[in-house]
Amino acid sequence: MYLISHTTGVRCYSMFIRTLGNFTKGIISRRTIRAEIMAALILTALITAFIVNINYYVKTNSYIKEKVIQYNQEIIKQAGQKLDYILSQVETAKVQLIAASVTSNLFRSYRSMSPADKIKTVKSTEDLLKYTRRSFPIISDIYMIGYDGTIYSTSPNTNKEKLGRKPWIRSMMNLSYNQLIIPTHIIDYENITYPNNSSMQVVSVLQKVRGTNGEKNTGIIQIDIKYSEVEKVAKSVKVGEGGFLFIADDNNMLIYFPDQKYLGKSLETVNYKGYNSQNTNHFSNMDSYSQMLAFNYNITNNGWRVVGIIPSRDLFWEIKEVNNIWILVTVIAIIFSLILSYFISKGMTRQFNRLIKGMKRAGEGQLDILVPEGGNSEMQFLSKSYNVMIDRIDTLMKDIIKKEKEKTQLELKALQAQINPHFVYNTLNTIKWMALMEKSDNIANAIVSLVKILEYSSKNCDRTVPVREELDFIRNYIYIQKLRYGNEIGVHYEIDSDMYNYCILKFILQPVIENSIIHGFQGSNHAGIISIRGRKYDSTIIFEIEDNGIGMDMPRKEKFTGLGINNIDTRIKLNFGLHYGIKISSVPGEGTLVVITLPILTGQEEYNV
User: Which of 303-317, 477-491, 529-543 has the lowest mean pLDDT?
Assistant: First the structure.
């Protein structure tokens, strides 16, 4: 059981270490400075804790095991010494009785005595036996059996005839050995009724008596030891709930056993609490079998031995408790190291993470946000240098934007100067032919649209205009284009009503529509339709110009994003930032979609275009 608990503890600890290793491996795989610092702290704490705890575990277990074994060996030894003391008392009584029998005639001339002498001899002998019994409380009764058939007893209730027929009496008389121990047995040769019909159990010690001057054996002394005295010694030893103690003689006959049905029987017949003669027949000071330990103490004078059988789960429960505490302390220490390493690494990398976030914002174009200067001296120097660099880059970017705006204004004016004469020429040419062919109101409408276009184009472009004005300009522009291309072009407007009062940059929509008319429907065999949609989305307004023309592949798309489209995208980004601008998607044979994203302007903002 100790082995099982030990193995389980180590297995649990190993599983925890593997889990922690996988966690640490996951941290390292992210390859961040914080992760590497945390992993280094965890590994340092883990290795230190492992070395310290393993050393503590081995030494503590060894110490506890040694002390537990010593303690149990000592209590078994004490029980053996108590039993040895009982037997020494029996030996003393036996020596006294042998001396008395040798110096008297009670075994030699009893039959030739007169009746009066016989009575006197019996009385004096039994008085001696009774005196001896009173001197040694552990003795139940004493008997002296002569080879001539005479029997003396301390008890007046002895059935002497029945005692004389006992097999051990005949064995002692007929065999050569001088002493014999009869294992625990019931006294059936005393005519005594015990309470509750119980019976008296004793252990009998027999000794032959020789006459003087080398005479042959004349009698036998039998001393019955109270079994209760032996039992008292055995029960004084606490060997745990699952353990037990037994006493056996040199022939493996049981003197004491917890289950009384085995008393007086051979040890080989025992099958009790997992113990039997198959798993152990001989005991050393400590033998292990079936997760149990045996402690043995030999009484050298007569071959008796005291054996304590103790399950290892009862013997080493303290080790199990220490193991559990060891595992708990280790887990707590590792968890504490995890928490501590987390906060230490967080503190060490806080300023570094701020610097990384600042770099990310700078990469997104937010050059006006500086990083707080904190942390250790190295990080303060790095943060300060970064802020100086960002401030310098921001200044340079503003200079570049200012120059680009000036350049864009010049390009826009040049574009207007290019577009307007060419457009006016084509328009007037159209009106001329219409005037020659028919007299129609279309001529007047065309002239009105042309005038409005020229008015809108000639306005100061260094400001934003309402969406309503830009759409009016688009309607006049498309009306003129329809005069040129006929009714082959249809235009659909889907503009949210709340968008008309927002402001946008001038000439944002016209270049896109012009590209759709000129390039989108060129070579198309069906009527062209242009859809102009406008809607509000969060804090932006979105225009979508979609046609059902011939679409574009990549080379045509690059041509499509020429001067006019690129000019619009550049103006938007310079004024509002990189989050805004133009996106183009086109499928050859299906059409083109241009999406323009702008911020919401109410007319109070000032932007230079």
Answer: 303-317
357: which 2 tokens?
């976030």
Residue 410 lies in a domain: yes
Q: Which residue has the higher pLDDT, 388 or 169?
A: 169
Supply the CATH number for residue 118's domain. 3.30.450.20
Contact 405, 397 (CB under 8 A): no
CA atoms of 274 and 285, how far apart (whole Å) = 20
Looking at the structure, do residues 85 and 176 belong to the same domain, yes or no? no
Domain that holds residue 172: 104-230
Say which residue, 558 or 4, is predicted with more confidence: 558
Dump pLDDT digits (tens) for 262-303: 888 888 888 777 676 555 433 344 444 446 677 888 887 777
Residue whose C-alpha is closest to residue 140's, from 99, 104, 179, 194: 194
**Distance (Å, rounded) from C-alpha 536 to C-alpha 546?**
17
Q: Please tell me whether residues 421 and 521 are part of one structural domain.
A: yes
Other beta carbons less than 10 A from residue 297's beta carbon: 23
Query: Looking at the predicted structure, is the pLDDT value of residue 374 above 80?
Result: no
Q: Rounded to the nearest 5°, which phi and psi values hold at 527? A: -65, 140
Banded pLDDT at 502 (limits 50, 70, 90): very high
Is the confidence at residue 598, as pLDDT, over 90?
Answer: yes
Q: At what angle do helices 33-103 and 317-363 cross, to 10 degrees?
A: 180
Do 530 and 519 contact (CB within 8 A), yes or no? no
Which pairs with CB-CB distance under 8 Å and at least 24 residues apart come from 341-345? 341/37, 341/38, 341/41, 341/42, 341/45, 342/38, 344/37, 344/38, 344/41, 345/34, 345/35, 345/37, 345/38, 345/41
With H, G, I as helix, E, B as strand and everything else as coil, classify residue 65: helix
Rg, Å, the chain Cα set: 59
Q: Range with the lowest mean pLDDT among 70-84, 94-108, 262-276?
A: 94-108
The closest alpha carbon to 607, from 343, 408, 449, belongs to 408
- 555 and 516 Cβ atoms separated by less than 8 Å: no
Assess whether 414 and 546 both reside in one domain: yes
In a domain, 254, yes or no: no
Cα–Cα distance for residue pair 234/76, rounded to 1 Å? 9
Q: For residue 141, how many C-alpha atoms fall within 13 Å in the half-sphere facing its CB? A: 23
Helix then strand count (H, E) for the chain reads 14, 19
d(CA 367, CA 394): 6
Looking at residue 590, its pLDDT comes to: 85
C-alpha pair distances (Å), 368 with each of 359, 375, 381, 384, 440 = 12, 22, 19, 15, 61
Q: How long is the chain?
A: 609
List, in sequence order, every residue forming a beta bridge with 143; answer none if it has no partner: 153, 222
pTM of the model: 0.47
What is the distance between the alpha carbons of residues 169 and 174, in angstroms, rounded to a whole number? 9
Domain total of the chain: 3
Contacts of 168 (CB under 8 A, 6+ apart): 180, 182, 204, 206
